[in-house]
Write a structure and sequence with these properties.
The complex is a heterodimer of chains A (423) and B (510).
Chain A (H helix, E strand, L loop, with lengths): L14 E4 L12 H7 L3 E7 L1 H10 L10 E5 L2 H4 L5 H15 L5 E6 L1 H5 L4 H12 L4 E6 L9 H12 L8 E5 L4 H13 L5 E4 L14 E5 L5 H9 L3 E2 L7 H15 L4 H23 L6 E4 L6 H12 L2 E7 L4 H9 L6 E5 L2 H11 L3 E4 L1 H9 L4 E3 L1 H5 L8 H17 L5
Parallel strand pairs in A: 1-12, 2-3, 2-4, 4-5, 6-7, 6-8, 8-9, 10-11, 10-13, 11-12, 13-14
Helix pairs in contact in A: 7-9, 10-11, 11-17
Chain B lengths: L1 E3 L7 H11 L3 E6 L6 H9 L8 E3 L4 H5 L2 H16 L3 E6 L1 H6 L3 H7 L6 E3 L9 H16 L10 E5 L8 H15 L2 E6 L5 H5 L6 E4 L2 H15 L3 E2 L6 H15 L12 H6 L10 E6 L1 H15 L2 E7 L5 H10 L5 E2 L3 H11 L3 E4 L1 H10 L3 E3 L18 H13 L5 H9 L23 H9 L10 E2 L1 H8 L3 H18 L3 E2 L1 H10 L3
Parallel strand pairs in B: 2-3, 2-4, 4-5, 6-7, 6-8, 8-9, 10-11, 10-13, 11-12, 13-14, 15-16
The chains are: A alpha/beta (423), B alpha/beta (510).
Amino acid sequence: MPKDAPQLGCAQAPILKERGQHEVFCGLTSIVWLHRKMQDAFFLVVGSRTCAHLLQSAAGVMIFAEPRFATAILEETDLAGMADVHEELDRNVSLLLSRRPDIKRLFLVGSCPSEVIKLDLSTVAEKLSEKYFPNVNVINFSGSGIETTFTQGEDACLEAVIRSLPSSEKTQLAVLGALPDIVQDQMMRLLEQLGLKNVFVLPQVKFDDDVSIGKNTHFICVQPFLGASYEEMVRRGAKPISANFPFGAEGTTKWLWAIAERFGISKAKFDTVVAAPKLRAEQAVAAVADGLRGKSVFFFPDSQLEIPLARFLAAECGMELTEVGSPFIHKSLVHADLEDLPATTQISEGQDVDKQLDRVFDYSPDLTVCGLGLANPLESKGLSTKWAIELVFSPIHFYEQAADLASLFSRPLKRAELLKVGP
Amino acid sequence: MKLSVWTYEGPPHVGAIRVATGMEKVHLVLHAPQGDTYADLLFTMIERRNHRPPVTYTTFQARDLGSDTASLFKSACEDAYNRFKPDLLLVGASCTAELIQDDPGGLAEALGLPIPVVALELPSYQRKENFGADETFFQIVKKLAMPQPKTENISCNLIGPTALGFRHRDDVEELEKVLQKLGIEVNVVAPMGSNPADIRNLGAAHFNVLMYPETGESACRFLEKNLDQPYTKTVPIGVGALSQFVSEIEEVTGLTDLKNKVESRLPWYSASVDSTYLTGKRVFVFGDGSHVIAAAKIAADEIGFEVVGLGCFNREMARPVRTAAKSLGLEALITDDYLEVEAKISELAPELILGTQMERHIGKRLGIPCAVISAPVHVQDFPARYSPQMGPEGANVIFDTWVHPLVMGLEEHLLTMFREDFEFSDANGPSHHAAHQPKTIEKETIVEEASPQNGSSHVIWMSDAEKELRKIPFFVRGKAKRNTERYAVDKGVLEISIDTLYEAKAHYAR
């Protein structure tokens, strides 16, 4: 903790809203991790060669295990009306399902071209669901770049999943958001130790997992980009739990405490459960934070994780925030984290990348968090950078990953110090 | 509609970006939704470029579609001009913008900018990346190149290298060295490294060297027709091709005795006895047309492999690739369907694949070594060291690269001799590889247990024959198994004995 604690609170602060060139991925990119998370699901993008090329390029600049995603590439004949697009899609789906009989959930994913030609994928999905009932459940969502940014693809997918879930009056806790398996297990252990029963995670790993929602379902998001899913849960009568996101020792404690409070768990019991992992996390973060304290950081908009992560860096690692950009700000989700940011922080939403680049050079921060398209160009101009996409792919949530999260930010700085040669 | 898992080429606008990024003082305004900016990371990450590609993406959203995407395009153009002050503006549309038909060319023209504007037609639903690069460069040349007095000394242009090209950086350097040795000046290298003024000056050269037909052929044809510049047709990859390339230059320039001026180590390395074990190794060749044609020739004529299959993913090169296949008694596989290529490799069971990064992964799955010869590019295809494919050094690099994945000759024999030695086992892989890792005997037994029965054929392996098969080193075991089974099926033998195994061996002996 810095000695002179800065004044906190950005929830009411003016947000710099920009539009112009967005240097971000579209929602299709979410498929890269979603298909690994849902083991009986297949994602079929209905789009162009660009969509296929994006998925391949974004996938860790090429992962080559047999992927559970593919693209049905629209061709001239489809657009000119020479081929019936619905029939073509039908043909492609049956080809796919015959090759992959293990598929239980098929997501038909809309793209920019499919949206522009107004391809009605939801009707197609309904028809296909009937056709392949009960073996395959076909669900539609859009990952198009004209509607979704990067992680919003997971949001759109999850929203569609929630819509398809049955209702129940069961009292239960739903945790929204895909997490790496090991992190999810840690989280479930903590919740179990707190005495919570009937906890489930969305998206569910297998379609057959028994999952339902209703007015006795309480839910909390583990990712800040799930705005549409949040609203869909509320529409279904579920009760939201709001808290800081579970990054670092403090974030995790606040997140867990919000759940504990809702379910009437005593402070004493709570403290017994979290004391040891919390202390462990604090000590581990402290060791790493030495390299971060007093250093300034600038966030380009990328995954919507920016605001909660900025809170972690400022509050738990002693970093100074310059500008924190986010592609979208769902205030209902990130309210608590916004409130915990130093009041001097410039919050920005949307992007005009050229103007933002001018600002980053004005600030000349010690560390810049940005997308892959910007990182090397900024490094060559002497700025240390952290690839934002790594924050989406790495285990960073909860106590046991708190120090790993801090290390992701300290490593580029340490590296810059280590190297005795430069460009 | 075409179901696609992995693609060999990006959309045509990525080709346009490759040309723009390779050049200087050029800016491309691309009418595109957010997300298409992913293309930037191909250049900044895979190629490790230290500049953003000179591209402005208009970033229209769903809510703009009903209103005015055209004015968004115009303001993006104006802003880009004012900020970057390029000498040439390229405008085009990505796949989505093509559907909304805003006419970027007309809109940009209407702005009356004080620089030339080239409007690109990039049909996303018909063509692909290579077409986009070739077309973009052709349009730039058509707009800017004009007749010039020829240089006093004999000179040429190097045509075709782009950003994100497979070894383009080093091929250019190598050809510059070769041409210097031949006493020929290089006038302009384009698109990579050139600016609009250089393009205006293309006509000063006496002839063009077409380095990459995929990205430079249309421009070369235009220059031949309009600026009276002949161009070389042979891509100088491999010793034979290099020699043919030099002959073409002699013909075009009237210079003589150029041939002995460039020499590679490949011929001696290939002739030395250490390479005998390479004889007749069965290879499968796949990639872009130009690299495949060159690789097949090197494989067959310069290393002594047996080419058992070849093909390319770019349909534009189908004709010459078919001709190359025919000369080897093969039928070419022309497809951009990765699964089809995988099926073919699996069927042919070659000992080595000369392919792209896709085939490298196919090889990994099938347990077949692979050397990469062509795009699509991967971060590994931009090594820090000098590593051309063209010219004499290119031939050296190719010899090393192709031989490296194989188990070396003497090691092959030793592995057969010391089959029972648990530390000296073929399951460890070639000993010169970093991943070489001795395994325990138990592990090896488990790994091998299932292999003989797993065949798709209906013949049965008797247990003694099966044991014998396991004594054959892994890198030829698959072939031995396949040949024996095929032999058994042909002869109507239902049970494979040790005799069947050796009869098949004798039958397929070469």
